[in-house]
Amino acid sequence: MNALPDPAPLVRAFGDAPVFLHAHPDDESISTGGTIAALIEAGATVTVLTGTRGERGEVVPGELHGLEGTDELAPHRVDELAAALAALGGPRHAFLGEAPARAPGLPAREYSDSGMRWGADGFAEPADDAAPHSLSLAPLGEVVDDVLAAAGRPTAVVSYDPVGGYGHPDHVRMHYAALEVARRLGIPFFAIVEPRVEARVEAPSGLPAGRELTVELGDLVATKIRAMAAHRTQLTIDGPDFVLSGGQRHPVAVVERFRRVT
Predict the structure, then answer these.
(1) I need a labelling partner for 139 at 20 to 30 A (CA). Which of 78, 108, 218, 221 fits?
(2) Is 1 within the bounds of a domain?
(3) Among 25-29, 59-63, 120-124, 153-157, whose mean pLDDT is lowest?
(4) 259, 161 Cβ separation under 8 angstroms
(5) How far apart (Å, rounded) are the C-alpha atoms in residues 142 and 148?
(6) What is the mean pLDDT of residues 130-137?
(7) Residue 2, domain member (yes or no)
(8) What is the CATH classification number for the domain harbouring 221?
(9) Would residue 113 count as lying in a domain?
């Protein structure tokens, strides 16, 4: 039996109150599920903040495919997210735009999924029809203030690299929000090293490339898989792999990597 991750270096790196900033339901489990579970087991107070409800996501073929493009998809994905977070150990959670993740004095709002299209280079590009209330079009300062309202006194913030892993505009928006939160609070920002893309992403201009932190999940791979499997509209677990709605097949990462940016 593989051992669980050693909690000591995890807590030294992320501290005892890290915030994970994600764009859509399922991102938290696919990219960081094992690390979230490991930190919770180590006694950390983990917060997961989700930007949108993923209402423009494609749905895997099968019994749930009829939800695609309907008003029922978003609440279904909210339920999937709740089940995934429970499988990971129950981190604190909020959607940006509603209490407690809403800046004081502002009315509640929903940041909508901006949508995307695939570019010729294999990376996602912004959709032509993103709604005005989409996350990617929201003022960066408003998104940052919402994160700060919910974060409390975080010890680190974790989110995507400058191209959002594979280019999704909502991921990119979350990267820059996380970067600004880290700067304002003077805490570390860890960018996810995305194993599903081959491109090497350089640090933003003026920032050090930093060092990578590797989290070997050990027995927590099973926990991560349970969380991922909860997102039934978005992916299917097939042995050691997961298959996305477009048929893309990837191995479930048994190691999660992060690059410290600040």
Answers:
(1) 78
(2) no
(3) 120-124
(4) yes
(5) 10
(6) 95
(7) no
(8) 3.40.50.10320
(9) yes
Radius of gyration of the chain (CA): 17
Count, residues in the chain: 262
Give 236-259 pLDDT, tens digit per residue: 999 999 999 989 899 999 999 999
Closest listed residue to residue 187, CA positions, set 144, 207, 163, 158: 158
Alpha helices by DSSP H, listed for 42-154, are 73-87, 140-151
Structure tokens at 261: 């940016």
Phi (first) and psi of residue 231, to 5 degrees: -85, 65
Q: What is the pLDDT of residues 10-25, one digit of tens each?
A: 999 999 999 999 999 9
Q: Domain limits at 112?
A: 7-260
- The reply to whether 251 falls in a domain is yes
Domain total in the chain: 1
Written as six digits, the tokens of 39 are: 């930190």
* C-beta of residue 100 within 8 angstroms of C-beta of residue 149: yes
pTM: 0.94
- Give me the residue label for tokens 């600040």: 262
Cα gap 159→168, rounded to integer Å: 13
Q: What is the pLDDT of residue 229?
A: 98
